[in-house]
Amino acid sequence: MMEELQPAFIPYVGANFSLEESVQRAEDFAADLQKRRSVRDFSTQDVPKSIIESLIKAAAAAPSGANRQPYTFCAIASPKIKKKIREAAEKEEFINYNGRMDTQWLDDLKPLGTDWHKPFLETAPWLIVAFRKGYEIESDGKHQNYYVQESVGLACGFLLAAIHQAGLITLTHTPSPMAFLQKILKRPENEKPFLLLPVGYPAKDAQVPNLRKKRLEEVSVWYL
What we know:
It is built from 8 helices and 5 strands; from the N terminus they run ααβαααβββααβα. By secondary structure, it is of the alpha+beta class. A 3-stranded antiparallel sheet has the order 1-2-5. Strands 3-4 form a two-stranded antiparallel ribbon. A hairpin with a 2-residue loop joins strand 3 and strand 4 (141-144). The termini are far apart. The model has no long low-confidence stretch (mean pLDDT 95).
């Protein structure tokens, strides 16, 4: 009879804050994230590769189904590749804004001032494309991944917070369909594009829509 594998555990080492510190840190973190905005006006100022590496490390710290970490983050600085991505994205977005999107969708987008032009895909010094991996290709065949959409979404949430914490800007870009990203970046069959994030510093004249987030009472229900 095959011996049953036993999970290996190590002591958990976490932060040890006082109640007052926990309250303050929670308030400060919430207040800081509430300043995060989707920005489309990028500076051409360079962002060191080491910063992008740290951002991806932060993303990979997110929880995932069975700890499979079913994602790949492609970081692109090549002007040639960024140009290809912009051209392909704008081709799809032009069709979206001129037929695929219904009237209600277009009306909901009007306050954001967006259209099919995506210059930030070339202006931003980096593009990070998150790919979801439905399964792993291993020496003995395919190995299933679990809760793939949820796991990749959590990792991208960590990535967004890390980008903001580093003093950089981004926006969540999902040109639909996104299959061109798999082709341009030559990713394997088990990887499908999930999210595209331009990353960099804001332009000096950067502007954002005058929007508000929902209040706490609009997004929470309490059972005490």
